[in-house]
Design goal:
alpha/beta; ten-stranded mixed β-sheet; two-stranded parallel sheet; 14 strands; elongated; binds iron/sulfur cluster
């Protein structure tokens, strides 16, 4: 496989040019492109409207970055976690979260994560590699199929909140989401896609410039520089002022409401002083605040916020007339909840 080219790494024009060099007409490239990005073909044999000799040629010179689901686990609350394996034997996870009238897919963009947030099990794995655009696309395509099989309905929402920092794998993530949104593919509305970042300020500005219609969510978790440095090392690179500037830039360009994710960590970021700093920070633009219950993993040094602190925190925010929700974590019993994705159900040996 090593000398073969990843065919989904070619864009449409490159594919046309590549095949033209071999004397193949433009419509061949269109056909292959459709099989890859609209029908999610896993091998060239499936491309039945291509001549056999051409399929053999493709097989000899290219490969498709297809994924295999090697493990599946369902929680008591019906959340389902999938362990995907790449062609070069890397593992990562994706999750289906059913609700009354919808199914949300939480997807990964990297194998592991380089940002090492101290409350996050994925960060402990270290960083292996970026997922390719094809792999991210495949993950969504397969999760959609699984959603139809298990819940009898297509995906209604996608949250890019699984393993990895999506803005550190910007091109591949956006390419995959763009293909998923294409009318001949899943035709997924960008309005139903939310990308979550730990605070990659440069990427936030790029997202604003590219004027994609997807929603942006910031994993803030503290609006105090000292505390944020402690739990999210990215804050040493982009501190709260820098992040604020990027968010402000994003809002000016897109006029889209920002969502803030805030894990309530007992005794660390759940005081009224923390709530005040949070509401001050979010004044930059219209926003929504999602407070998240913390799910300690076995090795975790943090605890969840207690009931009283949580209630006081919520009341403080509500009194500032801000929209706030407390998200009950789903899939805790199968380590599929926020910050728990760590390939624990199989040895992570890649
Ligand atoms: S919380 Fe997100 S950005 Fe931080 S280590 Fe985990 S996966 Fe990476």
């Amino acid at each position: 496989m090593s000398s073969k080219i990843n065919i989904r790494a070619l864009n449409h024009e490159q594919m046309i040019a590549n095949f033209a060099n071999l004397g193949e007409p433009k419509f061949r490239a269109n056909q292959v492109y459709e099989w890859l990005w609209y029908k999610s073909a896993s091998n060239f044999e499936e491309m039945t409207n291509l001549p056999k000799a051409f399929r053999d040629f493709l097989d000899e010179n290219f490969f498709i970055d297809f994924l295999e689901i090697i493990f599946k686990q369902q929680s008591k609350d019906k959340t389902v976690k999938f362990l995907f394996q790449t062609a070069d034997s890397h593992n990562f996870e994706g999750v289906l979260i059913p609700n009354k009238d919808r199914v949300t897919a939480c997807i990964s963009t990297q194998v592991g994560c380089p940002l090492n947030c101290s409350f996050c099990a994925t960060g402990k794995l270290g960083f292996k590699r970026n997922l390719s655009a094809g792999e991210i696309f495949e993950q969504i395509f397969q999760l959609n199929k699984m959603s139809e099989q298990i819940f009898n309905r297509k995906l209604s929402n996608i949250v890019v909140m699984g393993m990895g920092e999506p803005l550190l794998n910007y091109e591949n993530t956006i390419k995959a989401l763009t293909h998923i949104s294409h009318e001949n593919s899943l035709h997924f509305s960008p309005q139903r896609i939310t990308l979550s970042t730990a605070g990659e300020a440069q990427g936030i500005k790029k997202l604003a410039d590219d004027n994609l219609k997807i929603n942006l969510s910031i994993s803030l978790h503290s609006a105090d520089n000292e505390k944020r440095n402690l739990i999210m090392p990215i804050n040493k690179k982009y501190d709260l002022d820098t992040l604020k500037n990027a968010i402000s830039y994003y809002y000016q360009k897109t006029k889209k409401r920002i969502t803030y994710e805030y894990l309530l960590l007992g005794g660390l970021n759940d005081s009224l002083e923390d709530a005040k700093k949070l509401t001050d920070f979010t004044k930059i633009s219209p926003c929504k605040i999602n407070l998240i219950e913390y799910n300690p993993s076995s090795e975790s040094k943090f605890t969840a916020s207690n009931k009283k602190n949580t209630e006081d925190f919520i009341n403080f925010i509500e009194n500032k007339n801000l929209i706030v929700t407390l998200r009950k974590s789903k899939g805790k019993d199968i380590s599929a909840a926020c910050g728990q994705l760590a390939n624990k159900n199989k040895n992570f040996n890649n």
